[in-house]
Amino acid sequence: xxxxxxxxxxxxxxxxxxxxxxxxxxTHDIVAQSRPLWMFFGFQGTxxxxxxxxxxxxxxxxxxxxxxxxx
Length: 71
Fold this sequence. Notes:
By secondary structure, this protein is mostly beta strands. It contains one helix and seven strands.
């Protein structure tokens, strides 16, 4: 899990140096969940809006759901 608190004066794209794999999701301000963007060299990122916000990148391996390990 990666938590990022940011403040920006314009809309932009944020890139994190974490490898892009299926199972990653990103949550904006605890309410809007989406898939991260595939970025340069296999990293991931997301669109961010101007203002102060909180992002959370979370990873759950796809096999977690396939083999019924979720509750």
